[in-house]
Amino acid sequence: MAGEKTIVCRCEEVTLETIVDTIEQYSCSSREVKLRTRAGMGYCGGRTCRNVIDRIVAATNGEPIKDELQLSYRSPIRPATFEVLGGGHENES
Amino acid sequence: MRMRVDHHPVLGKQTDRKQVTIFFNGKPYDAYEGDTIASAMMAQGVYALRQHEVSGNARGVYCNIGHCYECRVKVEDRKVVRACLTTVYHGMEIDSLSGFSEGNE
Amino acid sequence: MKVWNLLIVGAGPAGLNAAIAAAGEGLKVKIIDEFNRIGGRLLGQLHQEPNGEWWNGIDVANRLHEKAITLGVKIESGVSVYDLEQSEFGWKVYTSEGMEKTEKLLLATGATEVPTPIPGWTIPGVMSIGAAQVMGNVHRVKPGNTCVIIGANVLSIAIANELRLCGVEVKEIVISQPNSSLTHSGTPEKVMESLLQLTHLAPSVLLRQAGRVAKYIHPSLAVKFYPKNGMNILDIPIKIKTAATEIIGDKKVKGVKTVNIRSNGEIIPNTERITEADFVCIAGGLAPLPELAALTSCEFKFVHELGGHIPLHSERMETNEPNLFVAGNITGVESAKVAMAQGTVAGLTIASEIKGNKKHSDSAIEEALLTVRKEREEALIQFQPNIARARELIYQQFELDWKAESPKRSIS
Ligand code: FES
């Protein structure tokens, strides 16, 4: 199917092809795929594609999905403006 | 185009809301109090809210509840908000990100 | 600055009921939610119960909201959480409106939709099925006059009917590309299998009809005899032998390219066609949204039956992190009624820790736990089979990992 060029991570426009190639080349975990391809690293914090990437990694490596959250979250969870982080009120809602 | 569900067989009718005007990329649009920017624009048939910052591809509402950030727009030339979470008010000025200028189509 | 007894993130069914239970025990409670209305996923829900009555999520949400307010709960919408930090009194919670202090923190952040990526799914006018539901039922805006839904499952069939009530013509429900690591609903046979497992419990007469054909026969046979052009349920054609291969359009969606497939997912040559539509919905199912818990040292488990990664927790909704609790779909995807019942358990557990009136609270909590089990058993929408058993295993795991040798928690 025409799946290879499918965008998986909408924020960074990372395709299935790139993700699968990366997994195969480096036989890596979801976390490593994220760092290498930027999939799941965009504005939404991986919320939209995290579960899909876990599945792709599991299917490509032929192993079950791990218990640890492979796309480790780092605060801030929501992209925040400097004002918010500084305690001001000019917020990104 | 107007895509309001004024009458609903189960939820009843909703016709008593106050109308306001908002501006999207400089163009005026009708909206109702209580609308989000996303619902107001979709009711007018405007789907594209921004351009992808690298590819320039058009993007619009995807999750409608604040998870995906696809609906980011600039309000009052000042702050970036998620259109699906942000309530409209009369005279609100909304602009697309990445120099996107055409609201319709 | 005020320190709340309990801060709740998420004003959905679990968060609201937790607030009601905790405030009922005298706690000072605040709820925050990033949506601009109170009710979470309740707001979109609209389906008929087996007795013919409508489950109107907006009404339910309003009722809970009012009750919480009456009990003195402070509720703020349009507030996002950025970060969490343990502190000597409990938690510091950093939000878009500044910092909140609280003794106990309850995460009731619900679930997120899992997409089934397909070429063209970033085109404006392609949205998650939940997005269309909220547009129609909550904002009272039709995303368009015609639509195609990609993904055949209980949720998508239920929402297709809701869209129909909003005046949308749902042209067809097709399945997502088979044999791809992007989907896990898979072949028509797998789709049928999951529909069959679920439809006897599914909402309303409508969904039971979907299971009607094949309730008593094997899924593979059911697929074999499933009409190529789909089965109509209240005028909505459900085509599990048609798969979407691409969404077309540029600045605005134009339609969906599909092919016919065999029961095993094989494409039948020369069957490609395009169904035009104003908007397209992607229905890939739900997964718990655990990101805030992931900012703490909370232990996680991946549990397929519960929809994905969940914070490990006890039946009383405690996590291994002191003063951190979870309730609702963050603990596993289930119906709103289960989430509400879990919220009550969490609220009472937290009140019991703060008030220390163990005798009184233990019996109340036991009763609340019974309600959870009852709601689970009677749930109309069962998102996965074997939920109850998967839950049991999680509770046992929690006891093993965190109760056996570490008596640091005050209640058991
Ligand atoms: S549409 Fe996803 S954040 Fe607004």
From TrEMBL, chain A:
Residues covered by the BFD-like [2Fe-2S]-binding domain: 7-58
Protein name stated in the entry: (2Fe-2S)-binding protein
Automatic annotation (TrEMBL), chain B:
Keyword annotations: Oxidoreductase
A GO MF term: oxidoreductase activity
Gene3D superfamilies on file: 2Fe-2S iron-sulphur cluster binding domain, sarcosine oxidase, alpha subunit, N-terminal domain
Residue ranges that the Swiss-Prot or TrEMBL entry lists as coiled coil: none
Keyword Oxidoreductase assigned: yes
Keyword Oxidoreductase appears in the UniProt entry: yes
A Pfam family it matches: Fer2_4
SUPFAM superfamilies from the UniProt entry: 2Fe-2S ferredoxin-like (SSF54292)
Protein name: (2Fe-2S)-binding protein
Lineage: Bacteria, Bacillati, Bacillota, Bacilli, Bacillales
